């Protein structure tokens, strides 16, 4: 079963963030703990790590803004 990659809640007032950059391309293998992508809010830039190992399937587009909980990819 694929592990979902969703925009995490990073703070109490955090509602949305911009997906700045994927560190791996669609179809690449990732390991749990690898930095997958970077998010930017009005207050900070944060690197988000993979929570599972497998093949990355990218859904989210760099430069787009997403709300907390939005699905931006999976790890198969």
Description:
The chain is mainly beta and 76 residues long. The protein contains no helices and eight strands. It has strands at residues 3-6, 16-22, 29-30, 35-40, 45-49, 54-58, 65-67, 71-75. A four-stranded antiparallel β-sheet has the order 1-8-6-3, with no helix packed on it. A four-stranded antiparallel β-sheet has the order 5-4-2-7, with no helix packed on it. The chain starts with a strand and ends with a strand. The model has no long low-confidence stretch (mean pLDDT 95).
Number of helices: 0
Mean pLDDT across every amino acid position:
95
The helical percent reads: under 10%
Percentage of β-strand residues: over 45%
The overall strand count is: 8
Oligomer: single chain
Tell me the overall shape: globular
CA-atom Rg in angstroms:
12 Å
Short summary:
This protein has strands spanning 3-6, 16-22, 29-30, 35-40, 45-49, 54-58, 65-67, 71-75. The protein has 76 residues and is an all-beta fold.
């Amino acid at each position: 079963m694929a592990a979902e990659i969703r925009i995490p809640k990073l703070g109490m007032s955090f509602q949305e963030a911009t997906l700045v950059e994927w560190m791996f391309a669609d179809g690449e293998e990732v390991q749990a703990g690898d930095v997958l992508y970077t998010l930017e809010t009005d207050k900070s830039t944060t690197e988000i790590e993979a929570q599972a190992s497998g093949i990355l399937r990218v859904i989210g587009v760099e430069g787009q803004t997403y709300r907390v909980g939005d699905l931006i990819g999976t790890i198969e």
